[in-house]
Amino acid sequence: MLRGVGAADRLCEVCVSLLGIEAAAISLVYEGANVGTLGASGTLGRVYDELQFTLGEGPCLDSVASRAVVLVADLADPNETRWPMYGPAMLAHQIRGVSAMPVVVAGEYLGALDLFRTEPGVVAGEELAGALIAAELAQLSRAEVAQATGMLIAQLDVGPTEALVRLRAHAYSTGASATEVARDIIDRRLRLEAH
């Protein structure tokens, strides 16, 4: 299972793929200052995100400060003046639309997920929610399979590879998904026997 930067990078890549945007990044914020990029969909996502750190302004900082989603449909709009340095810098990179939503862990606002578009417009709330739910469900599914695999290691006295193979084999033989079998093992509705 991916953790830390690898998981953050993967989440950003999934956002790009599912939302049809050019780049995504996850910023970390501490005491109101952008302290760095945790994950990005690629080099450009990291560059766009780190400009906020360099310039001291941008959607991530506003999202965390306001504890709300920040949506800017067009940085080229003459009425859009909230970021006098960041806006023109992003336009120089051909980025027109930006969105940021706070990342909250255990009730603490730790940063924001930033989305970047070359076309004017914002990611619709429904699209964003759907993509994040899909990514979260995929992460939960992997976590459940990992937890069930750990339980099988202890129950069957086998190694991790053998435990995972048995879980998947049971799923295949019963027509269930690996996640469904994992949930049954975790909830103790299913107990695989040692062979």
Walkthrough of the structure:
- The chain is α+β, with helices and mostly antiparallel strands and 195 residues long.
- It has two domains: 120 residues, Beta-Lactamase, CATH 3.30.450; 72 residues, Arc Repressor Mutant, subunit A (Orthogonal Bundle).
- 51% of the residues lie in helices and 19% in strands.
- Strands 2-1-5-4-3 form a five-stranded antiparallel sheet.
- Strand 4 and strand 5 form a beta hairpin.
- The longest helix is centred in the last third of the chain and has 32 residues.
- It starts with a helix and ends in a 9-residue tail after the last helix.
- The model has no long low-confidence stretch (mean pLDDT 82).
Q: Output the number of helix runs.
A: 7
Tell me, rounded to a whole number, the average pLDDT. Answer: 82
Percent strand equals 15-25%
Number of DSSP strands?
A: 5
What's the CATH topology label of the largest domain? Beta-Lactamase
- State the CATH class of the largest domain: Alpha Beta
Order of helices and strands: HEEHHEHEEHHH
Summarize the structure in short.
By secondary structure, the chain is α+β, with helices and mostly antiparallel strands.
Throw out a few tags for this protein.
195 residues; alpha+beta; 7 helices; elongated; Arc Repressor Mutant, subunit A; single chain; 2 domains; 5 strands; Beta-Lactamase
Topology:
Blueprint: H1 4-19, E1 23-30, E2 33-40, H2 43-55, H3 59-66, E3 70-72, H4 86-92, E4 97-105, E5 108-117, H5 125-156, H6 160-174, H7 178-186
Antiparallel strand pairs: 1-2, 1-5, 3-4, 4-5
Helix pairs in contact: 1-5, 5-6, 5-7, 6-7
